[in-house]
Specification:
There is one protein chain. The protein is about 25% helix and about 15% strand. It has six helices and five strands; from the N terminus they run βββααβααβαα. It has a five-stranded mixed sheet with strand order 1-2-3-4-5. The two termini are about 25 Å apart.
Length: about 190
């Protein structure tokens, strides 16, 4: 399989302006794994990790420089087969939904272009159970339905099961303590997982 960090895709699938630098100024995935399935297909697993983040209610539809950010992503959001379905794309431009939208579009386009031989995808959002500010709604994206962040995000997905919200502890369940004991100890100390 493949594991990459701060992955931005092999091409500028989102047509984002500016230079393409991993982890800076363009949509990136904290991590990307390519898993080979028993049926021979390959699933791209996109990861976004959060710890203490929380966000305010401000719209990000226009950048600080005056760029219409909705216009950048609108062509993909209106394309047939888009995994995100919303009446007005501007409703998505609130954190964390705007970032989830961009990452979803990226991994969808990576599969459309068969990057790493991908034939399917899922999006894993790793957020500690204790981060109730992020897991709740906090007033962001008032036009999305749902009592929690996960419910609100899933409400705009055509296939909500592709989005998985979990804690780092749940994600790491099953990772062999003996084989990865030093790494697990570091994670426990650093991130309380």
């Amino acid at each position: 399989g493949v594991v990459a960090y701060e992955w931005i895709g092999a091409d500028n699938y989102l047509n984002e302006p500016g230079s393409r630098t991993r982890g800076a100024q363009v949509t990136s995935l904290d991590a990307l794994m390519c898993a080979r399935r028993a049926d021979g297909g390959r699933t791209l697993v996109a990861f976004e990790w959060k710890y203490l983040e929380s966000y305010g209610p401000a719209s990000r539809a226009t950048s600080a420089r005056g760029t219409d950010r909705v216009a950048i992503y609108r062509p993909l959001l209106e394309r047939t087969g888009c995994p995100v379905a919303v009446d007005d794309p501007a409703h998505l431009f609130f954190d964390p939904y705007e970032q989830l939208m961009r990452q979803t579009l990226l991994v969808w386009q990576m599969v459309e272009h068969r990057e790493f031989g991908g034939t399917d995808w899922i999006h894993v959002h790793v957020v500690p159970e204790e981060n109730v500010a992020l897991r709740g709604r906090s007033g962001a994206a008032p036009n999305l339905a749902g009592a929690t962040m996960a419910e609100a995000w899933q409400s705009v997905l055509t296939e909500p099961e592709r989005y998985r919200l979990m804690s780092a502890t749940a994600l790491l369940d099953g990772v062999g303590e003996r084989d990865w004991s030093e790494w697990r100890a570091w994670l426990r100390e650093r991130y309380l997982t």
